[in-house]
Amino acid sequence: MEYDVIIIGSGPGGYTGAIRCAQLGLKTAIIEKYPTLGGTCLNVGCIPSKALLDSSEHFYNAAHTFTEHGIKLSDLQVDLAQMIKRKQEVVDATTKGINFLMKKNKIDEIHGVGSFVDPHTVKIVKADGSEQVIKGKNIIIATGSKPMSFPSMPIDKKRVITSTEALTLQEVPKHLIVIGAGVIGAELGSVWARLGAKVSFVEFADSMIPTMDKTLGKELQKVVKKLGADFYFSHKVTKVENTGDEVVLSVDTPKGEQITLTGDYCLVSVGRRPYTDGLNLEAAGLKADNRGRVEVDDHLRTSVPHIYALGDVIRGAMLAHKAEEEGTFIAETIVGQKPHIHYRLIPGVVYTWPEVASVGYTEEEVKQEGIPYKVGSFPFKALGRARASMDIDGLVKVLAHKETDEILGVHMIGARAADMIAEAVTAMEFRASAEDVSRMSHAHPTYTEAFKEACLAATDNRAINM
């Protein structure tokens, strides 16, 4: 079989790219090594984690805030088996939806491990051992990433686990130790903390979510601390050992001392690595860089012009929505269109509760680059909608250029921040000023009023409700 486009990997970037290719009239095939489409995001990442985050938040609210709302419950319990079952039902429905989209768009779906034979030829080894060989005028590498670890913290998938196993635990841990307080660690740690686990975060950096604006990390720590979590910042894990019923960690403190932490599970959440294992890149004339990434130019072409790569396997943030934009970008590039992606305006989100969302420059970055700036912020506790729902934790912070008033960055922690950040992205895509947003009518009462008020605060300190 010969195709206009072959896509290796069916995560958000791969399947979105396949659909856009098909929409543009290109004969397209998508290759997936696992039985279901959707990659990490739909199967063991974004979708199942959000299902558990929502379930655990419902339980936590039932236990801690329903009484204040005038809702009385008794004998409240976690039915973990049902919670995990519902999570899987959400995953199954979502992945079946991708199957439907492949059929609808007449995309050939091939399951098996794909690898290059030469720059235009891909071999697929199927589960039953049979092989299929296909050719493509264009090939897109969309193979994503895998959880990373270090030799000092060997993963056994029983007591020392990755995010994948943390989504299918059969019991609520007594003490879950999370190595890494970044996005994944914060999300999954908060799930199990809300369900009753003691959670300890051990983080090499000096704050939670260290790649985001420092204000957000400080605010998130305040919230997660209310769940009873402990934090060990600027600490280095030197050894992780499964002793049978327990996990023992040796940890170096900032003072050079060594402490021991003991729990019944340890979640290793120290990042992800690009996944190109078994692709046989050399046969296509390609090689990965020293971080395992496939190098691409500004058009997402590799050094072999008809081979493209996207998502977690190339440079940039490892985000599902970044990969989706890149899948569309490549499809349109192949047919001669001139698409664009503004990488600075791809938002980042942490789906704890309250949610954390960010787009544009952080305050640390504008300082480092010497950009003149001003700051406006507005707390959720001063927001009528937040008080009504009892979601008063958090704030919205706006960075604007000191001379032009153009919005440079928006950083939120609060209820529905994951949805609210889209307004900031829209404003920044059209290079709006803080005053532009402050003069837009925002419905009252809503959470998004916090963004307007923060923009007012950045514009000559004009916030109305603070």
List keywords for this structure.
466 residues, alpha/beta, FAD/NAD(P)-binding domain, Enolase-like, domain 1, 3 domains, seven-stranded mixed sheet, five-stranded parallel sheet
Structure description:
Residues 346-454 form the Pyridine nucleotide-disulphide oxidoreductase dimerisation domain. The strands form five sheets. Strands 1, 2, 3, 4, 5, 6 and 17 form a seven-stranded mixed beta sheet that branches. Helix 1 runs parallel beside helix 8, helix 3 runs antiparallel to helix 4 (80-104) and helix 3 runs parallel beside helix 6 (183-194). The chain has 13 helices and 22 strands. By secondary structure, the protein is α/β, with parallel strands linked by helices. It has helices at residues 12-23, 39-44, 46-64, 80-104, 163-166, 183-194, 214-225, 320-334, 363-368, 384-389, 417-429, 434-438, 449-458, and strands spanning 2-8, 28-32, 108-111, 113-118, 121-125, 131-141, 145-147, 160-161, 175-179, 198-203, 230-233, 236-242, 247-252, 258-263, 265-268, 272-274, 307-309, 348-350, 355-360, 373-379, 395-401, 407-414. 31% of the residues lie in helices and 25% in strands. The protein folds into three domains: 2-147 and 273-343, 3-Layer(bba) Sandwich (FAD/NAD(P)-binding domain); 160-270, FAD/NAD(P)-binding domain (3-Layer(bba) Sandwich), CATH 3.50.50.60; 354-460, FAD/NAD-linked reductase, C-terminal dimerisation domain (Enolase-like, domain 1, 2-Layer Sandwich).
